[in-house]
Amino acid sequence: MILHRGRRVVAALLLSVVLLTTACTPKTPGRFDQAQKESTQQKSGQAVSKTATQGSEFNKLFPDAGDGYQRVYTQEKKGFAEAKLKKAGKDIALLSISDTTSTPSAVAKFSKSTKKIGGYPAVEVGKTQTAILVGKYQVKALSRDSSFTASDRADWLEKFNLNGLAKLK
Amino acid sequence: MSKSIVDLVDQLPTGGLTISMLKSLDFVAPGEWQNTVGFVNTIKTVTGEDDEDLIQQIGERAVYLFNDKSQGYQTALWLYQTVDGTDKALGAAALANKVGEKIPLLGFLNSVTPKPDKAQTIDLTLKLVAELVAFCQINGIPGDSIGDFVASLGEYSGESLIRMVALVCVDGLIPLGPDFISKAISGLNQTNPQELEKNSTFQNIKDVIPGNNAGSKLNFIGESFDSVKGWMNGLVSANNLTPQKVVHNLQSFADIADDKLDYLAAFLDVATNYYEHTGTQTLARRLIERAVAEI
């Protein structure tokens, strides 16, 4: 009888072990796990530098609407401002200014730059983006419709108040 | 926040009642909302980029931005989850094996109870205020910018627009009727701060509603709703929206008689989480739009 009970205990234990180990099988690490781990070590202040310029400073340096384009501001955060360009009710492109103090790696790509837009080093990124570096600020034009080409992006980058941006601290 | 933004977006459902309901509201905003799910897929859809190295950089920056509490994205998500989160277990459990089928609603009438108009009004107006505050958190404008929010409503598209359409249809028209706007305004006028304090959603989110006490928060809720009524009226009249018309479209997935609209509202309330679902999508989109511009 005692032996019988002992077996049941062993069986129960074994079952628990099986359940525990199957439940705890580690999942394959995801491609963003490392970023998730690093970025949760601090609760705040890790993504945007304390010294970054306020987004409201950037807003006034964006190009004006015109030529059938509408300009709609979408985000204004510390170190970042973004507006979209619309034409006939459709989103055509995004324009942005960001402070690279928070994202030093963003600056590195300009070391390979071979051309200039508005007098500033320019690079094309991926299929949809053109970026220029004005001091510590990155200005980007991002196509959101195939009708908005790389040459449109260069044109719109030149329309920013780049001299004003260069003077920002 | 326990789950990463990557997991939250990866785990968004592709089917079920919430998705069926939002799809059935497509007639109000045709083609506006695609149920984009999956973190990497959302990056590709939002940015138009498919280079894996670029996607990695965008994703990592988005993860950093989300996890930085000072950026407000977590507060916004929490708001979307919280205004949607009450009384969920009941409907979810009952419906677990019904997903994808047409749902005969009568069987559920025993387990759901319609809310009185005043409670429904508070729910509707709190959801709207949550949208306003979340909008301000995501876009980085002060939390009481009613004017900026109202101006931006006209720019709402995609998942943000369908969320507002659902708010008008499911939390306005169905429970409160065709004159839901005036009903909600008079309902709010007859609500005192003590009653508001008793509402569990209000208890949860009151700290982020502008105002020093329940009275001034109630005023803010009233002002917010009042300033959005023009937009809601426009949506209703442009589409000739009536409770019957909305229900007719919902009938593709739920069988319900017109005289049981109170129950339908209660049922949808417990069985769907459209605010959280589309809110997560809005948040992911904004994070990615910022990340791609910053890298």
Describe the protein in words:
The complex is a heterodimer of chains A (169) and B (295). Chain A has a domain at 55-167: Phosphorylase Kinase, domain 1 (2-Layer Sandwich). In chain A, 33% of the residues lie in helices and 29% in strands. Chain A has helices at 2-23, 33-39, 55-59, 104-108, 150-159, 162-167; strands at residues 69-77, 80-87, 90-99, 115-117, 120-125, 129-134, 137-143. The longest helix of chain A is centred in the first third of the chain and has 22 residues, at 2-23. The radius of gyration of chain A is 26 Å and the shape is elongated. Chain B has 295 residues and is mainly alpha-helical. Helices cover 66% and strands 1% of the residues of chain B. A two-stranded parallel sheet of chain B has the order 1-2. In chain B, helix 3 packs across helix 16 (274-294). The longest helix of chain B has 25 residues, at 214-238. The model of chain B has no long low-confidence stretch (mean pLDDT 89). Chain A: Keywords: Signal.
Under CATH at level 1, the class of the domain at 55-167 in chain A stands as Alpha Beta
The largest beta-sheet of chain A arranges its strands as 1-2-3-7-6-5-4
> How much of the sequence of chain A is in beta strands?
25-35%
Round the mean pLDDT of chain B to the nearest integer and report it: 89
Sheet-strand content of chain B, in percent, reads under 5%
Strand order of the largest sheet of chain B: 1-2
Low-confidence runs of chain A (pLDDT<50, min 5 residues)?
Answer: none
Domain module count of chain B: 1
Q: What string gives the helices and strands of chain B in order?
A: HHHHHHEHHHHHHHHEHH
Region (Disordered) (chain A): 29-52
Signal peptide (chain A): 1-23
Keywords (chain A): Signal
Biased composition (Polar residues) (chain A): 37-52
Keywords:
heterodimer; A: 169 residues; alpha+beta; Phosphorylase Kinase, domain 1; seven-stranded antiparallel sheet; B: 295 residues; mainly alpha; two-stranded parallel ribbon; 16 helices; 66% helix; globular; signal (chain A)
